[in-house]
Structure prediction request, 303 residues.
Amino acid sequence: MNTTQLECFVQVAQNLSFRRAAEELHLSQPTVSKQVASLEDELGGPLFIRTTREVALTALGESFLRDAREILRLTYAAGERARRNASGTGLAIGYSDTNELMRLEPVLDRMRREHEGFHVMLNQGPRDANVTMLMREQLDVVMGFETEALKAGGIGFTSLLEDGLSCVVRVDSPLAELGEVGPGDVEGLDQVLCVSPGLRRRGYRAQASIPAPAGSRVTQCTTSSEAYCLVDAGFGYALVPTLYTMPDPFHTILRWRGSPVVRYGIYHRVGVRDGLVPRFAAIACETYGIPGYARPLPESWRP
Prediction:
C-alpha cells in the first residue's frame, strides 16, 4: 500500500469518477484505474461498483475511506515535520479557537523577523487532541487553558495569562446597557455556553460554579464563532472565555461577575532545551504578559 494508491482511491471516492480523479491528480485515467485495482488486490475486495453510467463505493470502500484519509493526513504531516526538524526553522502549533490567532500573530511576526526562513504550521483542533499530538511529537507546542490532567507523560505547561468568562450579547439586547452582569441579571434568559468537549465531559459548569438558568434553554458550543452565531440567531447570551472574544459593531462584550479564573498558556514537552520552542515561549511571555499574570520560563529555557 502506498500514497499513490491511496490518493487515487480518495480522489475517485470524492468525485465518483475515474476521469475527474485523473484530472485532479494530473495522471492518466488508466494509471488511476491501475492504482485502485492494485489497492483492491491488497485489501481483498472491490472498493467501487462500476457501471457504464456511474461509480459508487462498496461497503468495503465506505469502510476504508476514513482510514485512507487519515493515513494520508499522517503521511503528509510526518513529511512536513521531518522537513521542519531538518531545517530547524519551523514550529507546529496547535490551537483551539480562531480568535486565539489575534494574540498569536505578534509572536509569530517576531519569530519570523528573528529567524531567517522561519515557517509555521498551524493546527486547529480540540485542546485534548492537540496535546495528544504534542505527546506524539506531531506538534511542537499547544496553546490552551491549563488542566492538571493533561500535564502528564512528559508534558509541561507555561502560563501566559489568567482568563475568565465574558458575556456576549447582541447590541440590541437590554443587557448591552450594562457594563457587568451576573446570574441574577440573566435569570430567565436562554444561555449559550462556549466550552470544549473535554471540559464538558469533566463537568465544567459545576467545576466553574456557573449556575444553569432555571427554566431556560442552554445551548453548548465549542468555539467563539459558534457562540457569536448562536447569539445572532437568538439563542440567548453567550458565556465565552474573554481571550476568545472580539469586539465588533454587532455585539457587546460584558464582564461576567464572579467569573472563574483559569490560566492560559503553552503546553510543551518537558526537557526541550534546543530549537525554537524556548524562544517562542519567551516571546509569548513578553507579548501575552499582563502584570501579575505571566509566569517565569522554566529554568532550562532561560538564557
